[in-house]
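Folding follows sequence. Below is one example:
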Amino acid sequence: MGISQPQNLRTPPIEKLRPYGIRVSLPPGDPFRKLLGPEWHKLHWYSTPAERDAALAEMGRRHQYSRAGDKPSLVFEKVENLAQSRGL
């Protein structure tokens, strides 16, 4: 029998492996690097390459409420945790 309300557990259940990721960083010369530091980055992890690719397409698209001259200044890179993806 499964758990009906898993959010009420004291410790979260073991999550499935998420070996496929996207590394979001700032390009060289971006003014936000002065605030966040030159090595700032954020990692987002996904279970399958298809999930990662869909998220990457969504992250990289032009926002619908952006002004005409606005251009996103983030760098998106595909990353992979080889130990998890190959079951090592």
Summary: The chain is about 25% helix and 20% strand. The chain has a mean pLDDT of 83. The two ends are 31 Å apart (CA to CA).
